[in-house]
Prior knowledge:
The chain is α/β, with parallel strands linked by helices. The chain has one domain (2-154): Uracil-DNA Glycosylase, subunit E, CATH 3.40.470. It has helices at 27-32, 43-50, 59-68, 99-104, 115-129, 148-155; strands at residues 2-5, 18-22, 71-75, 77-82, 91-95, 109-113, 134-136. The strands form two sheets. The protein has a four-stranded parallel β-sheet with strand order 3-2-6-7. The chain has a three-stranded antiparallel β-sheet with strand order 1-4-5, with helices on one face. The mean pLDDT is 93.
Amino acid sequence: xxxxxxxxxxxxxxxxxxxxxxxxxxxxxxxxxxxxxxxxxxxxxxxxxxxxxxxxxxxxxxxxxxxxxxxxxxxxxxxxxxxxxxxxxxxxxxxxxxxxxxxxxxxxxxxxxxxxxxxxxxxxxxxxxxxxxxxxxxxxxxxxxxxxxxxxxxxxxxxxxxx
Length: 163
């Protein structure tokens, strides 16, 4: 197992109202230096269906989709020991400091993408923020029990009319 630092910055701007937290970037995401880089991860498909947009292919298109819809992206973990991309292998996690995002954005809702992110948020971050987070089903390909349609229905809580 190797200790790895989170390799890239959060994505947000002054209009971000919903913060989406993953657990820790996958190997593919770490290679690309951007969120949800594995081609089988359904995050970008879910976002595009929710907001009735084309599925973004490039990092600039992905950034545009997130920021246009007043979202922010970050992860619960700043560093950890991890084998490959497996959340189940995460050990000795150190939490990300989300105070910079919270102090610069009118965040109204925090969403965790999957159980591991939520578990780590509750363990390490919630007491600092005083904000509870909503746990949504993971968009990871490892969560094969959830179809794209079921994921879209669950994730619809992030839309502004649901805040």
